[in-house]
Amino acid sequence: MNAYLIEARRTAIGRAHPDKGLYREVRADVLLAELMRRMLAGMKAGEELTAAIDDVYVGCVGQHLEQGKNIARLALLLAGLPETLPGTTVNRLCASSLQAFNFAASTIAAGHAGLLLAGGVEHMTHVPMQAATDYHQGLLDRYPFPFNNMGLTAEKVARDYAVSRHDQDAFAVESHRRALAAREAGHFAREILPIDTPAGPARDDQSPRPGTSLEALAELKTIFAADGSVTAGNSSPLNDGASLTLLASEDACKRFDLKPRARVVDFAVVGLDPCTMGMGPVPAIRALLRKTGLGLDRIDRFELNEAFASQALACIRELGLDPDKVNPWGGAIALGHPLGCTGTRLITTLLNGLEESGGRFGIASLCIGHGQGMATLIERL
Ligand SMILES: CC(C)(COP(=O)(O)OP(=O)(O)OC[C@H]1O[C@@H](n2cnc3c(N)ncnc32)[C@H](O)[C@@H]1OP(=O)(O)O)[C@@H](O)C(=O)NCCC(=O)NCCS
Q1: N or C end: fewer C-beta atoms under 10 angstroms in the chain?
Q2: Is 238 helix (H, G, I), strand (E, B) or coil?
Q3: What ligand 1 atom has the least distance to the C-alpha of 231?
Q4: CA–CA distance, 334 with 126 (Å, rounded to integer)
């Protein structure tokens, strides 16, 4: 059986900043609830369709404070969805919402459900990345540096794969250029549902910086290692945002007259050395292509999460990807990386991009903290 992608939406991505952040006065649960409410309202999902949704899977990394105690269920109640609709929250770190999406596709493909919402949320202003984590000393001792410091893993990948500071900065400049061009062309207006904030509806991503130049980036100091190459300019920033998809079985499509926009073909998840976690997409994409029997040349578009320019570039080079096919509308360095939100943000942009360009196969892939990688293949219909 197949699982079909019916709808995919996201919020504008805000900067995680106590004074400047778009969502500094909007809670994570409200952000997700408003996205749920608006997406279903926009689809004109009547009571019958909404009541037929079997479950809600949400990815979120920092599952405490306002993101704690199963934000999937709390947000759907806030959204006014039926109390009979359950919800669960999953954690695969940066790939949490792609994991939620893959779980949903598998559940539908196995015939256990007909309609599922899958998405993710992260509010890094209110729930900072390292809040309330107590790593076992044995794990911290086992690796040459604290592998939970993602910036140090980016430095290691830059060294191991000889990715220069210049190349990282040039990659970041291009990410901003592409993101701003895509916004200008109206591409993101098709995927962003504006959420109300005290300053008005949030329509645009806050992190793309017009005027990002090689010269300006070259001025920035390295953050994680004095003799390193990773800076605030060639890293993904800290962000707030939510994304959401609706998946359906063939029967549900027929019953509710839903038009499938893509088929979820397959996915792969792998583990690797936590200190080079940024290389996760390489074995993940290779495994996915092996499983599906597709060659790289059959893939029309990649949405590859840019946790850091060093790892994104090293992955592109190792896999031999055509840079024009990777993140044509910019990536996380410009658009932002609200951890739990990003997986289905990538799926949303991938679907939108395949539809806009007439492409058929697309892969969304992320590196994942603690040394993992994930990749998901969809086929536009
Ligand atoms: C790298 C990091 C520590 C930087 O944090 P920060 O200092 O708060 O970064 P900011 O985005 O606020 O940028 C700091 C400054 O750098 C400069 N800067 C950043 N991007 C720039 C750009 N594109 N052009 C010019 N200047 C830029 C600006 O001066 C900016 O200050 P401003 O916002 O007041 O103008 C943080 O973004 C980080 O930890 N990123 C990685 C997150 C992560 O690990 N995610 C998981 C991945 S697996």
Answers
A1: N
A2: coil
A3: 1
A4: 21
Give percent above pLDDT 70 in the chain. Answer: 100
237 C-alpha to ligand 1 centroid (Å):
5
Distance CA 108, CA 173 (A): 40
> Distance between CA 347 and CA 137 in Å, rounded?
36
**Catalytic residue annotation:** 94, 337, 367
155 CB burial (10 A radius; 0-12, 13-18, 19+): buried
Would you state the pLDDT for residue 29?
98
Give tens-digit pLDDT for 331-346: 999 999 999 999 999 9
Domains of the chain in sequence order = 4-127+238-256 (3.40.47.10)
Ligand 1 in reach of 283 Cβ (< 6 A) = no
Q: Residue 154 has which token pair?
A: 């980016």
Angstrom distance (rounded) from CA 346 to CA 98: 8
Phi/psi-derived region of residue 204, left when phi > 0, alpha when psi is between -120 and 50, beta in every other case? beta
Q: What is the mean pLDDT of the chain?
A: 97
Residue 37 alpha carbon to ligand 1 centre in Å: 32
